[in-house]
Amino acid sequence: MTNSIQEIKNADTIFIIGSNTSENHPVIAAIMKQAKRAGAKMIVADPRRIEMAEYADVFLQLKPGTNIALLNGLMHVIIEKGLQDENYIKERTENYEELKELVKGYTPERVSEICGVDPEYIIKAAEIYGEAPKAGIYYTMGITQHTTGTHAVMSISNLALLCGNVGVESAGVNPLRGQNNVQGACDMGGLPADLPGYQKVFKPEVLDKFQDSWGSKLSNKVGLTITEMFKAIEEDQVKFLYIMGENPMVSDPDTNHVEHVLDHVDFLVVQDIFLTETASMADVVLPAAAFAEKDGTFTNTERRIQRVRRAVEAPGEAKADWMILMDIMNRMGDETRYSHPARIMAEIVSLTPSYGGVSYKRLEKESLQWPVPNENHPGTKYLHKAAIARGRGLFMPAEHVASAEITNDEYPLILTTGRILYHYHTMTMTGREEGLNKLAPHSYVEINETTANKLGIEDGDMVKLYSRRGEVQTTALVTDIIDDGVVFMPFHYSEGKANILTNSAIDEIAKIPELKVAAVRIEKA
Q1: Between 3.90.1170.50, 3.40.190.80, 3.40.228.10, 3.50.50.60, what CATH number should domain 5-176 receive?
Q2: Cα–Cα distance, 488 to 519 (Å, whole number)
Q3: Is 155 helix (H, G, I), strand (E, B) or coil?
């Protein structure tokens, strides 16, 4: 997030796109509702009439896979009506003329045909966003899990820059992270091209710094993403796979293909707190300690570094992740020993400029938002205040491109997937809670009333869904919150797996699969 969670309270406009905020980020949604009650305007764009749509001044119920067209349409209207921030554009951005030329073609009428949204709603949303002194955009995987996901994020950046909303308090571009330490994992080098602090492995000066500190020779080659790893396993280029705290047998697209890959790899190690569907396939399972069983830090969605303290002892042979990794490292010949996570943080601080002023002593009294360049720095509430980090904000115009898989006579419906309030990710933890299982006991598919009527399906019927990758049986939930021709399934459940159906086609830039759009057909079971 370029901005902080509490800044939402003072926003003039909140634009939610591709995020079921009240179910996936309920604390943040509560703050958004407070802002709305205080006078903020709200725009919501989603294929489903989610709860946040009830608070919206404008609800844009768009067809899955059409985010870029919608964003271009909003920018078209803003420029046509002269609502762009000309001074900001001139002083802090570049490549504006190219963006202006591209969005000329995205009239509200054309965008309406692509997205299925009333042109008047597009105009109204553009006016609300364009006229707001402080407008924040909030998005999640409804934006990124498409073959055009990277360009959709760029389009969000374009919109924010167009109206001068980057480097402004209570505004900005704010991706809401899906799990509690996704930001921290990325910060620490959990990306194929990065060492900690987003320092690139292919830069000689970066590699020299880390090699000198660690006393080891490091590769300067960019690594593989998950989707690339799976392909490399099939081609016998990767023989060993180590999975930590991830359950791809439920969370990844095309489950039958995932199972084939995990069967094919020579040696599979899974490190987790429970014996998940993926861990059940492993050659070796390493039992890890849960969050309340270890000391350390998490860095959350607003870049806030938070101290975690052990409350209970880990059961059996379970150990903190860092201890397991250190044991393996020592057995492989590296003699480095850490006595406590505070020692690891001290090493992070010495190598990672954005964490340069962090220490456990400070974290005992406060949480800090990076960048924290030195020990006297209070942390950074919002980014790009003085200037855009790269110098000038770069407009990156993008055309609308259809999803990798479109409907036809055999597969006439669009399937989109997501999360629900009562379960978390692959239910590794929430699936063991009796109360939550009573509230959300089984898989289901949301079907529009008109679609259901055409197919002779009634609420509660058992149905079968088919895609080009497989079939799944689940329960029909007939509803009016989703459009005719579109169906929705939560992906949490290991029985009635939505991801048997989803498409593994990827965004060629970020390598993220298109989990949000798949062509399916439904029959009464």
Answers
A1: 3.40.228.10
A2: 12
A3: helix
- Smallest CA-to-CA distance from 233 within 257, 262, 192 is with 262
Distance CA 391, CA 373 (A): 19
**Distance in angstroms (rounded) separating the CA atoms of residues 297 and 343:** 12
Which residues, listed in sequence order, are joined to residue 448 by a DSSP beta bridge? Answer: 479
Domain 182-369 has CATH 3.40.50.410: no
In the chain, what's the furthest Cα-to-Cα distance?
68
Length, in residues, of the chain:
525
Burial of 39: CB neighbours in 10 Å, binned 0-12, 13-18, 19+? exposed
**In the chain, what are the domain boundaries?**
5-176, 182-369, 413-524
User: CB-based contacts of 84: which residues, under 8 Å, 6+ apart?
Assistant: 78, 130, 162, 163
Question: CA–CA separation, 427 vs 249, rounded Å?
Answer: 12
The helix or strand, by DSSP H or E, that contains position 478, with its residue range, turns out to be: strand 470-479
pTM of the model: 0.95
Q: How far apart are CA 483 and CA 238, in angstroms?
A: 43
Separation of alpha carbons 254 and 238, rounded Å: 20
CA atoms of 99 and 111, how far apart (whole Å): 16
Sheet holding 135-139, edge to edge: 58-60, 41-45, 13-17, 135-139, 172-175
Q: Are 108 and 115 in contact (CB under 8 A)?
A: no
Q: How confident is the model at residue 342 (pLDDT cuts 50, 70, 90)?
A: very high
Specify the CATH class of 413-524 in words: mainly beta
Q: Give phi and psi for 471, each to the nearest 5.
A: -140, 155
Question: Are the CB atoms for 14 and 136 separated by under 8 Å?
Answer: yes
Structure tokens at 77: 């209207």
pLDDT band at 180 (very low <50, low <70, confident <90, very high): confident
Question: Element (H or E) spanning 240, and its range?
Answer: strand 240-244
What distance in Å separates the CA atoms of residue 479 and residue 424, rounded to the nearest whole number? Answer: 23
Encode pLDDT of 37-95 as tens digits: 999 999 999 999 999 999 999 999 999 999 999 999 999 999 999 999 999 999 999 99
Strand partners for 138 = 16, 174
> Of the candidates 185, 131, 508, which has an alpha carbon nearest to the alpha carbon of residue 322?
185
Q: Hey, which bits of 111-207 come out as E strands?
A: 135-139, 172-175, 194-195, 199-200
